[in-house]
Amino acid sequence: MERQLKLFFEFLENEKKVSDNTLQSYKRDIKQFRKFLETQGLMYNRIHEEEMKDYIKYLQENGKKASSISRAIASIRSFYQFMLRRKKVKRDPTANIKSPKIEKRIPSVLTAKEVELLLDQPKDIDLKGTRDKAMLEFAYATGMRVTEIISLNIDNVNLDEGYVTCEHGNKQRTIPLGTMALKALKEYIEDARDVLIKDEEEKALFVNVNGGRLTRQGFWKIIKYYKEQAHITKDITPHVLRHSFATHLLQNGADLKAIQTMLGHSDISSTQVYMQFQDGGLKDIYKKAHPRA
Q1: Residues 81, 120: one domain?
Q2: Maximum C-alpha span of the chain
Q3: Residues 125, 58: one domain?
Q4: What percentage of the chain's residues is helix, strand, coil (to nearest 5)?
Q5: Residues 71 and 166 in one domain
Q6: Within a domain: 104
Q7: Which residues pair with 173 in a beta bridge?
Q8: Residue 118 and residue 55 share a domain
Q9: For residue 112, what are the contacts with CB-CB under 8 A and spacing of at least 6?
Q10: For residues 158 and 181, is the Cβ–Cβ distance under 8 A?
């Protein structure tokens, strides 16, 4: 199985061009599955639907959430589909397996006042403050995922035209930058970034105090620090800023399809979750104006 897994992971990385985070998720899911097979004395190319059901039961008994189990099934299914194409297995044991129903959670969203309070915290009186100001303004202005933000290179940003080009997996999208974000980004690039970097060959847009590319953990710590400085009780993560970006756009009249494009959602249903945060005033207008409301 080791050889087949190696080929599968290479396929995901080189041909499917999945992001590193996605690749690591596949690896965790399938290696956990392999460990289960080994403990049960089972061969990966000889298992049936019953063994898959046993594995799902095993995950449930070990406290795995429905979302984690659903992802594990999808990862294993991808592996067996790959093996079928290469004629290394005769059947896909996941073919008739249904993923557990996942309850859609309501995304955590900041109010416009809370966003303003958070973004007002970093002061551009030193290099770190200038960087942090630009980073928070940028995150809220673009709605990009934290992985996408830390993966950006300096040449992904066009300051003259006011947009950023985001590459996620094998997809690419262009997102406009608002006035405040553009101003903070220009100050950071012109006044702070060149001083922070130690190597002129460094391409990362956002760098840490040592001049290297900022990490996910670094980004999270920065947001947590300013949340505490702002005395905001809500739990704030980079993804909360993404949710807030989408919600505030929708509340201010942006088209759902445009928001889907900016967020990089492949399916409109992922974007429709923000409809529940629509301004209540619109519902009142609808009820009063629509003949069948």
Answers
A1: no
A2: 67
A3: no
A4: 60, 5, 35
A5: no
A6: no
A7: 166
A8: no
A9: 248
A10: no
Buried b (16+ CB within 10 A) or exposed e, 212-240: ebbeeebbeebbeebbeebebeeebebeb
Q: Which two tokens stand for residue 66?
A: 């429905």
CATH code (residue 153): 1.10.443.10
Three-class DSSP category at 168: strand
The CA distance from 76 to 137, in Å, is 39
Q: What is the mean pLDDT of residues 95-115?
A: 80
Are the beta carbons of 145 and 199 closer than 8 angstroms? no
Weakest mean pLDDT among 65-74, 158-167, 208-217, 244-253: 244-253
d(CA 97, CA 285): 45
195 and 238 inside one domain: yes
Both 18 and 126 in one domain: the answer is: no
Helix (H) or strand (E) holding 246: helix 238-251
Domain count, the chain: 2
* Percent of the chain at pLDDT exceeding 90: 53
Main-chain dihedrals φ then ψ at residue 123, nearest 5 degrees: -110, 130
Residues 6+ apart with CB under 8 A from 262: 142, 143, 173, 175, 249
Q: Same structural domain for residues 66 and 124?
A: no
Question: Is residue 290 one of the residues assigned to a domain?
Answer: no
Contacts of 47 (CB under 8 A, 6+ apart): 37, 93
Same domain membership, residue 254 and residue 147: yes
The C-alpha atoms of residue 157 and residue 189 are separated, in whole angstroms, by 11
> Residue 228: which domain range?
112-283
* pLDDT of 155 over the 90 cut: yes
Find tokens 């039961």 and name the residue: 57
